[in-house]
Design brief:
The chain is an alpha+beta fold. The protein contains eight helices and 13 strands. About 40% of the residues lie in helices and about 25% in strands. The strands form two sheets. A seven-stranded mixed sheet has the order 3-4-2-1-13-12-10. Strands 5-6-7-8-11-9 form a six-stranded mixed sheet. It is a multi-pass membrane protein.
Length: about 400
Amino acid sequence: MDKDPQLQLRIFDLNCWAIRYLSKLRQERLSLIGDFLCQEEFDLALLQEVWSERDYWELKKKLCAHYPSSHYFKSGVIGSGLCIFSKHQILDTFLFQYSVNGYPYMFQHGDWFGGKSVGLVVLKIQEIIFNIYVTHLHAEYCREKDGYLPHRVVQAWELAQFIRHTSNGADVIMLGGDLNMHPEDVGIRLLRGWTGLKDSFIAAEQVNGNEDGCTLVPANCFTGKKELQCYPQGIRIDYILYKGLSQYDVRCNSHETTTGTAPKKDIPYSDHEAVMATLSIEKKSDKSQKHFTVEPVLVDILNEARMEVRVGLHSAERQRYSCGRMGILALLLLLMQGAMGLNSVFGGGLQQSFPKFSFSLLGLLAVLIFLISAVLCLFHTIEVKVLQGTEEQMRVALQTIQSKLSSG
């Protein structure tokens, strides 16, 4: 490898915003994305929000000559929306679905039905083992009152843990996707601090495209302008992160974003801008192994993340209590109706105080409320357990870091 030229990989990442029947000009935009990928011939294309498997197969058919290997990750009710197209042969795949992912009764958001996940493919290029991860975390619908922040922090922690525990046999790891977090958010700092991943935008020798690498920009005609009112330049929530392991160094030569409409077209590829990075991989000249060092700032990041998880835990406990109380009230109403019904049957001359139709309708409503409350109580009980477990994992990790820092 020392005598070989360094290996260069070109990576493409995009949230395609391809929701059937809802996304504007979906088929036209997917066609433009396919044309662009064929023209540029990247080594890897990491795509999110390809919600329709039919759309994936159409892309696969179009890209098969340039990207002969691909994989579509299935999860949830409508699918994860994640897929990878590769110029190099995919050797192995795996999908991990996050433990918490919003709420099933928030139909207008729909994240729960997508089964947000992280997908892994393993490649071998010039005897170098690559672990490639693609993910899409829960959306941030309101930054001022972000009720999903604890879930997104848990997802960032599970993503970091998944990468740490699946990358032992890899030489190089890469992560691409829509993380739905600003670069300074606690989830991003936790992910990068716990895994040691580098941000292609920060580390790149050359940067082109939107200012500050923004991927949601006001100039995009599909982007909601309300969410960008406080960010006139836009925000960066789509990332390519990477790290060299074992005996390989990885350097980011360039980072680029698309800047609006597709070439010679009047529409953009998506409501997000695409991220493109060129990475160079070469064998280390220094044969000594460099182990991941623990930074003291990671203690503060973990404490901040634990605090957000605790906030979510308290909220989940309140919701579980409310659902349980509602279920008990519905059950009491059913018991009262049952007693009244028995009284009317065996009480002889006593008359039914309610018309039969109203009585039956009230009973049906009580049964419905009881069933919904029971299901939601079970759902929030699972949420409480997950948040408790995550908080405990972070506590153990924090103790380990502090003992390393004190002994080092």
